[in-house]
UniProtKB/TrEMBL annotation, chain A:
<keyword id="KW-0813">Transport</keyword>
<keyword id="KW-0472">Membrane</keyword>
<dbReference type="InterPro" id="IPR035906">
    <property type="entry name" value="MetI-like_sf"/>
</dbReference>
<keyword id="KW-1003">Cell membrane</keyword>
<feature type="transmembrane region" description="Helical">
    <location>
        <begin position="20"/>
        <end position="43"/>
    </location>
</feature>
<dbReference type="InterPro" id="IPR043429">
    <property type="entry name" value="ArtM/GltK/GlnP/TcyL/YhdX-like"/>
</dbReference>
<feature type="domain" description="ABC transmembrane type-1">
    <location>
        <begin position="19"/>
        <end position="215"/>
    </location>
</feature>
<comment type="similarity">
    <text>Belongs to the binding-protein-dependent transport system permease family. HisMQ subfamily.</text>
</comment>
<keyword id="KW-1133">Transmembrane helix</keyword>
From TrEMBL, chain B:
<dbReference type="InterPro" id="IPR051613">
    <property type="entry name" value="ABC_transp_permease_HisMQ"/>
</dbReference>
<protein>
    <submittedName>
        <fullName>ABC transporter permease</fullName>
    </submittedName>
</protein>
<dbReference type="InterPro" id="IPR010065">
    <property type="entry name" value="AA_ABC_transptr_permease_3TM"/>
</dbReference>
<dbReference type="Pfam" id="PF00528">
    <property type="entry name" value="BPD_transp_1"/>
</dbReference>
<feature type="transmembrane region" description="Helical">
    <location>
        <begin position="86"/>
        <end position="106"/>
    </location>
</feature>
<keyword id="KW-0812">Transmembrane</keyword>
<dbReference type="InterPro" id="IPR000515">
    <property type="entry name" value="MetI-like"/>
</dbReference>
<feature type="transmembrane region" description="Helical">
    <location>
        <begin position="189"/>
        <end position="213"/>
    </location>
</feature>
<comment type="similarity">
    <text>Belongs to the binding-protein-dependent transport system permease family. HisMQ subfamily.</text>
</comment>
Length: 228, 225
């Protein structure tokens, strides 16, 4: 315990820096991932096969392989090709932080799209018929009725994904990003103890608890029209 | 592509280790999950609270961090308290970490599944004079198994994907072998993409397997119309 306190007093600036990087990864990947997931889910639910197929392939590829492999493919794998190194894509995958962010975003988008697709299937047919009877076009029905309702229906699972995403951000440390796990690894190697790792674990638990409270609150806001 | 053929034996060896790790962790994880579920439904309040605390803590920490803690922490612990005669292999460290994570999630799934078996059936079994062991083995487990199979499929897929993390602590699984090959051949994309495809295949194979289990577990139930 004394060791933990002295560790905390010595290295809290480093741990706070790491925590900030982790939170940045979490927040940015959640916002971008969600923005990507909505069109993916809509495309996946399309009755036209040539629209549904690409999104379906994307989702199976990212849900069917480990995130670590995806990170390695983007960070180490793409560097194999000279045309990637010469293109604008290199700005994204040439550096560790944007590359980790890209991998986390694409991965989360695939999982969230699957959740939202479930929500789209759960939108009552009567609501769509009512919207059509009001003279809304197909696009309007999708955008104003189906998507908002689907997000409301899938809100609990989406909230879960956000909490799980916090744990995924730890993998950024494998490509030299100094997030909370990365800082803790460095501290623990320097001190030959696991105290820093345990401390990081404690911080993760606290953030996860706060996140699950926040997502539950957000869910209640989204579905407030249903509360009696 | 030719490089891929040269290293295919290595990659297959790595895939074997990945599967070995996944199945070993699955066995221990299922046992831990059952024990955790039993503790969560125990009549002793302190045991219930301890089980909830442990499973919530394990589910709140990144799997990667748990692996690092298990691998380095357990080695430290053994070295300081048992005079350094024993060293923890990366494989054992990986199994401990993956089984703990799997068990934490499984305990919650098992608890829900056991609670879903109607109470009346337990009372009926007791009134027929079945022993506690018989009730657990012949009445509760087959029905709980049926209910938790879909979640187990999900958890198994997560477990299989999480095995890739052990490559970071130096265990020569499929991903580690691919990294080594990538360094020698300077073709990282080819090897990492190959690993991704193997993971996709392994996961694709496990879906029909679980579908078969579910069909077997559901015989005797009317199929939902």
């Amino acid at each position: 315990m004394d060791q933990l306190v002295s560790l905390l007093s010595q290295s809290w600036p480093a741990l706070l820096d790491g925590l900030w990087i982790s939170l940045q990864l979490l927040l940015l990947s959640c916002v971008l991932g969600f923005a990507l997931a909505v069109p993916l889910a809509v495309a996946r639910s399309s009755p036209r096969r040539w629209i549904a197929l690409p999104s379906r392939l994307f989702m199976s590829a990212f849900r069917g392989t480990p995130l670590l492999v995806q990170i390695f493919i983007l960070y180490y794998g793409l560097a194999q090709f000279e045309w990637v190194r010469d293109s604008a894509l290199w700005l994204l995958v040439g550096d560790a932080f944007p590359c980790a962010l890209l991998a986390l975003t694409l991965n989360l988008a695939a999982y969230m799209a699957e959740d939202i697709r479930g929500g789209i299937l759960g939108v009552p047919a009567g609501e769509k018929e009512a919207a059509t009877a009001f003279g809304m076009s197909r696009l309007m029905v999708t955008w104003y009725i189906v998507v908002p309702r689907a997000i409301g229906i899938s809100a609990p699972t989406l909230g879960n994904e956000i909490v799980l995403q916090l744990k995924s951000t730890a993998l950024a440390s494998t490509i030299t990003v100094l997030d909370l796990t990365g800082v803790a690894r460095r501290l623990s190697i320097e001190s030959y103890t696991t105290d820093a790792l345990l401390l990081a674990g404690l911080l993760y638990i606290v953030i996860a608890a706060v996140l699950s409270l926040l997502t539950r609150y957000g869910e209640a806001c989204l579905n407030r029209h249903q509360l009696r | 592509m030719a490089a891929l053929l040269d290293y295919s034996a290595q990659l297959l060896e790595g895939a074997g280790l990945t599967l070995e790790l996944a199945f070993t962790s699955l066995c221990f994880g299922l046992l831990l999950g059952l024990a955790g579920a039993a503790a969560k439904m125990s009549a002793l309040p302190w045991l219930r609270q301890a089980a909830y605390l442990v499973s919530n803590v394990l589910r709140g920490i990144p799997e990667f961090l748990i692996l690092l803690i298990c691998y380095f922490g357990l080695s430290n612990l053994i070295n300081t308290h048992f005079a350094g005669t024993l060293s923890l292999s990366p494989f054992a460290g990986g199994v401990v970490a993956l089984a703990l994570v799997f068990g934490a999630y499984a305990s919650e799934v098992f608890r829900g599944a056991f609670l879903a078996v109607p109470r009346g059936q337990l009372e009926a079994a007791r009134s027929y004079g079945l022993s506690r062991w018989q009730i657990f083995w012949c009445v509760q487990l087959p029905q709980a198994w049926r209910i938790c199979l879909p979640s187990l499929n999900n958890m198994w897929q997560n477990l299989l994907k999480d095995t890739s993390l052990v490559s970071i602590v130096g265990l020569e699984d499929m991903l580690r072998k691919a990294s080594i090959a990538a360094q020698f051949t300077k073709q990282p994309f080819v090897f990492y993409a190959a690993v991704a495809v193997v993971y996709l295949l392994l996961l694709a194979v496990s879906n029909p397997a679980f579908a078969y289990f579910e069909k077997r577990a559901n015989r005797g139930y009317a199929s939902p119309a």
